[in-house]
Amino acid sequence: AKQTGKNKLITFQAMPLLPRFTSQIHMETDLRKAITENQLCLYYQPRLELSTGHISCLEALVRWNHPLYGMIAPADFIPIAEESGLIIQLGEWVLREACLQKARWLAQDKLDYQVAVNISPCQFQDESFADKAIRIIEQTGIHPSYLEFEITESSIMQNMDKTIAVLDKLCAKGISISIDDFGIGYSSLNYLKEFPIHCLKIDRSFVKNIQSNSNDLAITNAIIHLGHALNIQVVAEGVEDVGQLDILKETTCTTIQGFLLSPPVSAYEIEQTFHMYDNRPVMIS
Ligand code: C2E
Ligand code: MG
Ligand code: MG
Ligand code: MG
Predict the structure, then answer these.
(1) Is ligand 1 within 6 A of the CB of residue 271?
(2) Which of 33, 158, 233, 238 could, after both became Cys, cross-link 199 (CB 3.0–4.6 A)?
(3) Across residues 134-146, what is the average pLDDT?
């Protein structure tokens, strides 16, 4: 599998022999079609609570199954979706599909976990974002407290007053908010005391070398203690091996997500793998 910069596309088959998009317009045109013609799908990656061994949440991650080019990773099309404005429609599709999947699991009495949905900064800044999101959730019939929205520091730093209003509206409905990729944005920490935030997700660039780099370990430690002190949950992202896990346990990290437990997989696969853990703890390491 291929590696492009910081995003390892290890869940995808590299297909260098197939033709690819010839221009950005080409991709935009195809992406517009993809949203309406059901070429997008959601994969799910579990989050594990270390203290109990229980899964607490499934993060929904979008993939594009292109009829000619096969599976395309979000890093390859989310930026184009953002530039073209298609991210609004795409984001609505993702939220609706995540809610519908949660509704299916509820109906089958399976996988009783929250579902986390990534919200891009463009989406978050859209005037009608909160109202549209709440409407979509209500249309699917699930309770908003099943949802967590993952937003990034760049989403919230633009207009603090507006952000507070949006987050308060979402929280009033019971939606949880997490800060994704925490630590790599240009953040003041001030917002943590002002905003209703439930969870910080430590960016995986800190977790990656936690065993060998004492600065990464120090930063990870600091974020975890910041979370404890502010009563905000902290999730370590990108946990790939038992060495990292052991160190994270020592730092009193409560929750992890990463390939060690599971890569993002289809709804079907997550059911096959994790349904049996609904009532008992997951053992890793
Ligand atoms: P993210 O929200 O930070 O999601 C985590 C990414 O890290 C996922 O990549 C996941 O596959 C990958 N990952 C998880 N565990 C590990 C690990 O142990 N090691 C390594 N190396 N990687 C790991 P993915 O699915 O390719 O998504 C990349 C990014 O694309 C996401 O980062 C998110 O920012 C964006 N994205 C994905 N789905 C959506 C979506 O539905 N809407 C929006 N707006 N953005 C999305
Ligand atoms: Mg995320
Ligand atoms: Mg992240
Ligand atoms: Mg990210």
Answers:
(1) no
(2) 233
(3) 98
Q: Note the pLDDT of residue 194.
A: 86
Residue type, 267: A
Task: Give residue 55's identity as a one-letter amino acid code.
Answer: I
> Is 259 close to ligand 1, i.e. is its CB under 6 Å away?
yes
Please tell me the distance between residue 181's alpha carbon and the centre of ligand 2 in angstroms.
Answer: 7
CA 101/CA 105 separation, integer angstroms = 6
Which range, of 17-31, 78-92, 172-186, 242-256, averages the lowest pLDDT?
17-31
Q: Tell me, what's the pLDDT at 188? A: 77
The number of beta carbons lying within 10 Å of the beta carbon of residue 24 is: 12
Ligand index nearest the alpha carbon of residue 94: 1
Q: Is the CB of 120 under 6 A from ligand 1?
A: yes
Ligand nearest to the CA of 61: 1
> Does the structure's ipTM exceed the value 0.95?
yes
How large is the greatest C-alpha to C-alpha distance in the chain, in angstroms? Answer: 52
**Integer Cα distance of 155 and 97 in angstroms:** 23
Q: Which residue has the tokens 């009193």?
A: 252
Q: Which residue among 9, 40, 64, 78 is best mutated to probe the pocket of ligand 1, counting the most ligand atoms within 8 A of its Cβ? A: 78
Phi then psi for residue 205, to 5 deg, are: -65, -25
pLDDT band at 205 (very low <50, low <70, confident <90, very high): very high
Q: Which two tokens stand for residue 280?
A: 């008992």
pLDDT at residue 256 in the model: 98
